[in-house]
Amino acid sequence: MEAQARGLLETEPLQGRDEDAIASADSPSMLSEEEKEELKAELVQLEDEITTLRQVLSAKERHLVEIKQKLGMNLMNELKQNFSKGWHDVQTTTAYKKTHETLSHAGQKATAAFSNVGTAISKKFGDMRRK
């Protein structure tokens, strides 16, 4: 039963081997004229249903785009939202937090070191002026 349901829901078109399996199962020479006519009618009906479903899907996709436009949701906004969410997710990771803390601490140390070097250079210049 599950295999039958899965087969009905497949979105891929029939492959060559699938068509061969179907052809060998119901060889046209083994069918009566009445069966052939019934199958042709069923084929036409299925093709019509597929066309109708494609039209309905297309209409629903257009309606979806219209609703998104009315809500101000366009591709650029969606990209911005996805990027913002992604960046927020990165910032909340433990690895990011540890890296941020380490770099922040290193930056404070570097700032202090540069300040000390600047003070020492200023002091040396001051000593050189006095001589």
TrEMBL record:
Keyword Nucleotide-binding recorded: no
Disordered, as annotated region: 1-38
Sections of the chain in a coiled coil: none
GO biological process terms held by the UniProt record: positive regulation of apoptotic signaling pathway
InterPro entries: TPD52
Pfam families in UniProt: TPD52
Record keywords, A-Z: Coiled coil
Keyword NADP included in the entry's annotation: no
GO terms for cellular component: cytoplasm
Family label: Belongs to the TPD52 family.
UniProt name for this protein: TPD52 like 1
Name of the coding gene: TPD52L1
